[in-house]
Structure formats: structure tokens, C-alpha cells
Write a structure and sequence with these properties.
GMP Synthetase, Chain A, domain 3; alpha+beta; 11 strands; Alpha-Beta Plaits; about 20% strand; three-stranded mixed β-sheet; Ribosomal Protein S8, Chain: A, domain 1
């Protein structure tokens, strides 16, 4: 069974910003991506409003992408965020500080009192961007998560833009609130395995709920070694979802 190469679409003010944001989202260097420019952006109708650029980014190597995510057995608990597992350079210390201060400032402007910690995760393979984990701790922070993590994803996206502009380079900032992302990942993995069993038992194709790119990626990786099913992403924009197809 051949797996499709992972790809994402990014919308940003310029093509260059879209490419940098996509590389940070996938945690890979820019030169490991094939870039398809869907819309170069520019002036909108009658020049009244700027039109955003849109690109599709596809990994040149599926193998490199898959090895960037640790394997998880069905019963394995979510891995805790690593804390300074590698030596930290002065440049990385600056990125930690800027990321922590950026998130703290955003929370302050939202009127939210919380503690913000930042620490570099382990670079799991050569050529992949080392993730910077920013963890938010406090009481009653559900407002930061939102429906299916949409608010948290928006906060992460804004933080990456601000930090990247401040440091003049992309930083793979991963924001979590009291372990929400780890719990959500395990929930998605269980759902993927359950729906795969149903697809095989009934011989029918099943579609999951619409998910953001990072959650669709979890489904693809969870089922990539299952010889009885194939997975495919369909749909556009925020309605994009994973279908699980039984192998005939």
C-alpha cells in the first residue's frame, strides 16, 4: 500500500511568509518541501483590499516526515514535553524568551492570568526543526482551547507570526494548555483505530469529522501501517477531513 505524501495549504500575506509558516507547521526545513503557488496574492477587486497569497506545500520525503513523530502503541500514554533535553544556544534562549513574553503579553491583553513556561523539545532527526514547547498553566483556561482546539490553534498561529517576525526566522512554537493537546492526540488515535475496524468489518468507507492539518496528520500516521485500510484527506479549507477506505 502506498501512502500519499503529506501536504498542507497555507494562506499568508506573501508567498514567502506562507512557505515559512508551512515549514514551521510541519517542523521541516523549507528545502524539504515542494512548493505549488496557488495564488500569488496582490490587490483585490478595484484595488480596494489586498488579496492573500496561497500555497500548497508537499513533503519531498514521506519517510522523513513519518519518523519525525514518535510511535505510540494503543495503550501508551501521551509523552510529556521534554524539558531542555539538549544544550541550548544563546539564539535558542532568545527564542524561548521572545516566545514566552509574546504569549504572556497576549494573555494579559485577553485578561487571562496564567503562568507561561517555554522549553525546547528534542530534535528527533537531523534536518527537522527543533520544536519549542510553550505550556500555559492556570485555573479555568478552557476559554483558550475553544471548540476542537480552534482558539488554541489561533493563539499558536499568531504567536508564530509575532515570534518569527521578531527573530527574523521561523520558530516551531507548539502551544499547549494544561496537557490538552496530548489528551486530544490520544483521543484521535483511539477514534482512528475504532473507525478503521468498522471500515474493515462493514467494507464501507468512513469519513471522520473535519480536522485541522495537524490532527489529520495524526490519523494518517496512526493507520499508515494498517494493511487493511487506506486513508485520504478530502474537502477544502476548514471542512477538510480524513476518509478511511477498506482495502478490497
Amino acid at each position: 500500500m502506498s501512502n500519499p505524501k503529506p501536504s498542507i495549504e497555507i494562506i499568508a500575506p506573501t508567498v514567502e511568509e506562507a512557505i515559512q509558516q508551512g515549514a514551521a507547521e510541519l517542523d521541516v526545513p523549507v528545502d524539504s518541501l515542494d512548493v505549488e503557488i496557488l495564488d500569488e496574492g496582490g490587490k483585490g477587486f478595484l484595488g480596494l483590499r489586498d488579496r492573500q497569497a496561497r500555497v500548497r506545500l508537499t513533503l519531498k520525503s514521506v519517510e522523513g516526515f513519518e519518523t519525525a513523530t514518535p510511535e505510540s502503541s494503543p495503550e501508551a500514554p501521551a509523552a510529556a514535553h521534554p524539558q531542555h533535553v539538549e544544550s541550548v544556544s544563546a539564539e535558542e534562549e532568545e527564542a524561548e524568551r521572545v516566545s514566552r513574553e509574546t504569549v504572556s503579553e497576549l494573555l494579559s491583553r485577553m485578561g487571562i492570568d496564567a503562568r507561561v513556561d517555554a522549553a525546547w523539545g528534542e530534535q528527533v532527526s537531523e534536518g527537522h526543526i527543533r520544536p519549542l514547547h510553550v505550556d500555559i498553566h492556570g485555573d479555568d483556561l478552557s476559554i483558550l482551547i475553544g471548540r476542537r482546539g480552534e482558539t488554541l490553534d489561533a493563539l499558536q498561529y499568531i504567536t508564530r507570526l509575532i515570534v518569527g517576525k521578531e527573530l527574523q526566522r521561523p520558530v516551531s512554537v507548539l502551544i499547549d494548555v494544561e496537557g490538552y493537546r496530548s489528551r486530544r492526540e490520544q483521543q484521535i488515535r483511539r477514534l482512528a483505530r475504532r473507525m478503521a475496524r468498522q471500515a474493515v468489518d462493514t467494507g464501507r468507507t468512513f469519513s471522520l469529522e473535519p480536522m485541522p492539518a495537524n490532527e489529520r496528520r495524526i490519523v494518517h500516521l496512526e493507520l499508515r501501517d494498517n494493511p487493511d485500510v487506506e486513508t485520504e484527506s478530502i474537502g477544502e479549507g476548514n471542512r477538510r477531513k480524513v476518509t478511511i477506505i477498506p482495502v478490497q
